[in-house]
């Protein structure tokens, strides 16, 4: 046997002060105070990545350069005045340092430690780990390099590196282009940015290498956006061993 409460009575019941002892048993969960559900038994802890020291290989050097002052005044913004320049066998990269970030360089141990003026300020604490991660990525980039592998999955999908393009104009001398055939009626041509080396070890694989991690990942994502992996046939351009879960086909 089921019954319902009239709408007007339900409104009055919600506005009136609630006494648990006078409520029916089936209405008790609706008026009980919300409890925060905890999915972990461990206490929450903040990351301490920013305090970890960065180890520099013997072939990588660190230097600090002064940045030019901006021509226009900007209020309420922290304008970097220095930059950390990291030089290695694969090139040189720099990271602009906010005024509240300090880097302690140990020449003997070849280690750099990042610190901020006040770790209790949320913005400084957030940038603490960010600057440390950028420096670590640059150290790996100029010493070993960053690699992105794109796999083309689909009937007739293939890619090639061409010295010239018919639909895209070159932006610097000697620029190469990635030509994609991924199911369109025309080939897709993308200019390879300066600082990225591209190759096709197989017709269905594209290998991108660069010292700049941000640059190579952005270009790899740009290529992937032309044919993102779809979940029904599993076709598309997969980035760095990407895997997707296939869905069942809709049968009417």
TrEMBL record:
GO terms for biological process: translation. One of its GO terms (molecular function) is structural constituent of ribosome. PROSITE patterns: RIBOSOMAL_L6_1. It comes from the Eukaryota. Residues 85-145, 176-237 form the Large ribosomal subunit protein uL6 alpha-beta domain. One of its GO terms (cellular component) is mitochondrial large ribosomal subunit. Keywords: Ribonucleoprotein, Ribosomal protein. Belongs to the universal ribosomal protein uL6 family. This is Ribosomal protein L6 bacterial-type. It comes from Penicillium alfredii. The lineage of its organism: Eukaryota, Fungi, Dikarya, Ascomycota, Pezizomycotina.
